[in-house]
Specification:
Shape: elongated
Structural class: mainly alpha
Number of helices: 7
Largest sheet: none
Number of strands: 0
Helix content: 55-70%
Amino acid sequence: MDYKYIEQLMERYWNCETTLEEEAILKAFFSQDDVPAELAKYKSLFDCVASDKEENVLGDDFDARMEALIDEPVKVKARVVPFRQRLMPLFKAAAMVAIILTLGNASQFAFHEEDDDVATTVSPKVHNGPAVAMGDSVKIDSLKKATVMPNQLK
């Protein structure tokens, strides 16, 4: 037998140029029992395509089943939330505030402590002014009077 027409249809099928009627012809041809040996390798392809389309067809009751699923009431299960779990965000916020305040106070204390130490050890505070000068002169005069010089005793 001459299977040129089937070979031409197969060539057009592989180039994706066949119509639905031509594909139906190919399926009908490969569904036969006596397929030539050179075309037998394509028989399983068309058997698979034919069986897939039959399996994936929706039933007549599909719409009714979907409507029944949609109309079913949704069961909502109540969940008990303990008081501690309700306050958990508040606990987290309070902990963050406490950490920030603690770090702020610790850093402020550390920075001021360093400034005080540096100021007292590097340069002592010097007081200038007339009150300091008079206080120093009074101290010197009292020291002179309290100490008797050996040349003044005679």
